[in-house]
Structures are given as C-alpha cells and as structure tokens.
Known about the structure:
By secondary structure, the chain is α/β, with parallel strands linked by helices. Helices cover 41% and strands 13% of the residues.
Amino acid sequence: MSNAPAPVRHYLQFTDLSADEYAHVLARAAEIKRKFKAYEKYHPLADRTLAMIFEKASTRTRVSFEAGMYQLGGSVVHLTTGDSQLGRSEPIEDSARVISRMTDIVMIRTYGQDKIERFASHSRVPVINGLTNEFHPCQILADIFTFIEHRGSIAGKVIAWVGDGNNMANTWLQAAELLGFTVHLSTPSGYEVDQAVAGLRSSASYKIFKDPEDACRGADLVTTDVWTSMGFEAENEARKKAFADWCVDEAMMQAAKPDALFMHCLPAHRGEEVSAEVIDGPQSVVWDEAENRMHVQKALMEFLLLGRVHA
Length: 311
Ligand code: CP
Ligand code: NVA
C-alpha cells in the first residue's frame, strides 16, 4: 500500500468527473441546498480559502462562488487581470505556483482552455473552470441539477440547443455523452460545434438540424445563449445578421413537448436569442438555474476538497 497523497482533482471540463461522481455531487447539492434554505449552519470548509481569478466579466459566477464559499465557512480572494500581475504578463505557471501555495482551491474564468490547463498543471490545489472559450462546466452542472429538480432524471431526454456552437454547446455535448441524453443542435452556418474542440468520443449523442424549430420538436428542454460570447465582440454585427432566425420564440416552444422547460445561462438579450414572452414565461426556469449555480458549486468544492462527504 502506498502512502502517497491522492492526486489533486481539477474540474476543467465536464468529463473530469465520472457519471457515478456526478450522482454523488448532485445528491450533495440537493442536501446542501436544503441546509441553506433551513438556515442550518454547515462549515466543512472552515479555514479554507478560495482564490477566484477573473479575466472576463461576471455576475453569477462571482456571486455564487463567493457567497457559497463563505456559507461553507471558508473565505475568498478575488483577483482580476487588471488589478494583479496577471495583467502584466507574469507567466501563468508562476502565478499558479504562487497562488496555490497560499490558497486551498482556485476558480478561473479566462479565454483559451489551454490557459486553465497550464495553470492546473502547476497548481498544488484543485482548479475549477468558471468559463473558458471552450467550456462552462459549472453552468451545465447547475442546468442538469435544475432539470432534475423540475422533471427527474435527465437520462434518455432530448435537449434542444438553439444558437451558437460555443462553450455552453460544447459542454452540453460532453454531458450528453457522459450522462446518456441526446442534444438536438441547430446553429447558423459557420457557427457549428467542432467535435474535436468539444472533445467528444463520437457523434452518437447529438443530431444536427438546419431549422431551429425542427431541433425543438419533441424536446424536453429548449436552451440557448447569447449570439456573441465574451471575447468575440468584434464579430457582433456579423453575428446579429447570421443569427437572426435563431431566436427562441413561442413557435419553437410549441414545437417542443408541452411540458418542456426553457433555460438560458444568462445574461440574456430579450429580442435577440430569446423572446421576452419565452424567457419571462411559464416554461422558463432561468432564475432557478442561476440560484442553483451556488448550490452545485458548493457541492463541487466539498467533493474536490473533502471527497465523498455524507453529512
Ligand atoms: N452564467 C454565467 O456564468 O453568468 P456570469 O457571466 O454573470 O458569471
Ligand atoms: N457563452 C457566454 C456565456 C456567458 C455566461 C460567454 O462565453 O460569454
């Protein structure tokens, strides 16, 4: 038997946890949410510190990680590119070595996935992806938790993705392969998902539709995202033209199952990727989705730092 310490676990993309580990984390998220709603004190991360590094803007990710870490008894350090040496070209590897000697867990929102991977490979502590150009695993974890809360197991279900083949789409596809559901993808031409970038094993868990309404047909969940993600602002005008027909509206929701849910990771642009009637309508669960970021990330931090807790 070796006495070597267990290797550090990171959460850089959705495939970093197994289906069995997701079952555990999702169950913990439900229990941690219950404790929060009941004002039950739960401080398993007392004396632990989370470093949050933001190279892009955020509302939900910042608030959910910061409030969540305090609720678990820990504390938070908040860094941005503009107010740290990260913005003055200190190598990412050096930043990782230093930050991970003083804190217990790190959350990073940045541009290329390669950057967070380089950070993680020089970090002594777990690193969590708070959004990269390629992936947004914490958001999909929250979305799946939200789906389960409203409709039960997501296995075997159909998720319609209407819009950009971006970080959210890539992560939904990874989740579909791992957890056994199907994604109906409809993206404008030129904005398709790249199977290699998404890191998929095969094309078995998704179907491509030219017409977004066809993608929504029979879906259990319809979901979309901004036409222009952070970092792609220079393409904004071209994207507005290309995406004009990819607005989730009443007709698309009517093509889906009668009890279909609508999700959007937010921030949203009413009248662009979604109509006000849909996002503010009865099938929309976007506020639950946003709140659930906090509960699932608390469960994720507990798992990465303490393993399988049953408190
Ligand atoms: N959905 C999401 O990640 O929101 P923020 O950009 O506000 O963090
Ligand atoms: N795809 C969007 C998600 C924002 C939470 C972006 O990357 O900007």
